[in-house]
Design goal:
187 residues, mainly alpha, two-stranded antiparallel ribbon, 8 helices, 2 strands, globular
C-alpha cells in the first residue's frame, strides 16, 4: 500500500468530506443523499486504487485526484438520470448517446465494413457506456460531445493535454479489444 496507510486515508477522507460535498452541491444538481453516496463511492474507488498501487506515480495531489473521482461519479449519475451536465469549462455535454457524425467514422474505422452502421453504433454506445472510469468519460467527451483535449484535461483534472491523449489512446485500445470480441460473438 506504499505511503498511504489506512490511518492516513481515514484522516484524508475526513478532511475532504465537507469540501467534496460542497463541491458536488455547488456544481451538480443532485440531492444531498446523492452527494453522500458519491462521496462514499469515490472513497471506495480511492481505497481500491491505493491497494492496487495506482497512486504510486500520481502526478497530481491526492486531493485533486479524489475530487476528480467525485466529479466523474457525479457526471456518471447525471448521465444515468439523463440530466444535462455543465462542466467547469462551460461546455454543455449532450444527454444523448449519439456520437458526432464527424467522429463516428474515427471510432468505427478499424472494423469490418460488412456490419451495418446502425448495429456498429449501438455496439459502440454499449461498450463505451460499460467501460470503467476514466475511459467512459473520456470517450464520451471526445467522440460524443466533441470536446477538445484541452477541454477534457480541464474537465477531468488532468495535468495537460498530452496526459489526456495518452489516456484516451489506452482507452481506445480497451474499446477496440472489447468491440472486436463482441463483434465476433454477434456476427
Amino acid at each position: 500500500m506504499g505511503k498511504y496507510s489506512n490511518t492516513t486515508l481515514d484522516a484524508f477522507v475526513k478532511s475532504q468530506r465537507d469540501r467534496a460535498i460542497t463541491y458536488l452541491q455547488n456544481n451538480f444538481t443532485i440531492s444531498m443523499d446523492d452527494c453522500e453516496d458519491i462521496f462514499q463511492d469515490s472513497f471506495i474507488i480511492l481505497y481500491q486504487n491505493v491497494q492496487e498501487g495506482k497512486l504510486d506515480n500520481l502526478t497530481s495531489s491526492v486531493s485533486t485526484y479524489f475530487m476528480a473521482i467525485c466529479r466523474n461519479k457525479a457526471m456518471e449519475l447525471l448521465r444515468i438520470k439523463g440530466k444535462y451536465i455543465h462542466s467547469p469549462v462551460d461546455v454543455e455535454i449532450q444527454k444523448s448517446t449519439t456520437f458526432l457524425e464527424s467522429k463516428i467514422s474515427n471510432v468505427l474505422s478499424f472494423d469490418n465494413d460488412d456490419v451495418p452502421t446502425e448495429k456498429k453504433e449501438a455496439l459502440v454506445r454499449e461498450i463505451v457506456k460499460d467501460l470503467p472510469s476514466p475511459c467512459n468519460e473520456l470517450l464520451w467527451g471526445y467522440y460524443r460531445d466533441g470536446l477538445s483535449m484541452k477541454d477534457l484535461a480541464e474537465l477531468y483534472g488532468y495535468s495537460n493535454e498530452n496526459t489526456v491523449k495518452v489516456t484516451k489512446y489506452r482507452c481506445c485500445d480497451k474499446f477496440k479489444k472489447r468491440f472486436t470480441e463482441m463483434l465476433h460473438k454477434i456476427f
